[in-house]
Amino acid sequence: MKLQHTLGGLEGLGAVNFEKRVFVEEWEKRIFGIHTAFMGLSDSLRESTPGYDLDIAGTSFRTTWTWADLRKGAEAMNPFDYFRFRYYEKWLGGIMAYCVEHGYVTEDELTAALDGSGSRIATTDPQAAADGLDEQVLRYLREGDSPRRGPATPKFAVGDHVVIANPPTGDHTRLPGYLRGHKGIVESVAEGNYTYFCSTGADGLGEPLPVYIVRFEGDELWGSTAEAHSSPLYAELYEPYLTTTTDAEKAARA
After folding, report:
1. What are the start and end residues of each CATH 1.10.472 domain in the chain?
2. CATH architecture for the domain at 149-253
């Protein structure tokens, strides 16, 4: 995983911020609300388990937005900016980049909005649109969207010894860097296959896949720096991230 993400086991990263408030600034609530609205209007909901009719919501939002898109936006940031910005500033950066990329707003319009010279974009029937959008987003908040797609088709079983793969990282990955190349034991297998809503390319995610919880011992991950009698670590991992010992040896020789 890229340097600025999933930093378990790394030292010297400075003081830890123990802020417990979910929202520190009022504007952070608005950013959370925008993300939630995008999730509730995402085109991916057309194939979701509850079944949504987005056309009756009256939305012009016509693309897919999931947690994966939010995370990709943050991971695309310069590592120094990632450490410098607050949590919801990272969200805002990802949302803005997405909106520009998909043509919902231009960079000039964003600049104009920041300096106060821009104007709001009107709709033909603001109240009707607002009512339909509110109803759809509220329904999404109540019913959600399950990533489960059909029965499980696992390659591994409980008790299997596995080695964590080291796939190339493109736009996004769900594999923590500190697990790569380490050995673990399958603790449990999810009941279904699960989609990640977007393809991560060579990282292996996209189509519905089995998911496992894998157990790692402390000394396997941290070596001589592990605390005595340390508790095991459990990680939830998609199947492409698991390999057998033989597969790992072949990959190392290739």
Report:
1. 26-145
2. Roll (2.30)
Intervals of CATH 2.30.30.50 along the chain = 149-253
Please write down the long-range contacts of 45-51, taking CB distance under 8 Å and 24 or more positions apart: 45/140, 45/145, 48/145, 48/146, 49/145, 49/146, 49/148, 50/143, 50/144, 50/145
CATH topology for 26-145 is Cyclin A; domain 1 (1.10.472)
Question: pLDDT of 112-154, one tens digit each?
Answer: 887 876 665 544 455 555 678 888 999 999 998 888 888 999 9
Element (H, E) at 136: helix 126-143
Produce one character per residue of 180-207: b if its CB has 16 or more CB atoms within 10 Å, e if not.
Answer: bebebebbebbeebbbbbbebeebbbbe
At residue 201, does pLDDT exceed 90?
A: no
pTM score: 0.77
Question: pLDDT per residue over 23-71, tens digit each?
Answer: 999 999 999 999 999 999 998 888 777 778 888 887 888 899 988 888 8
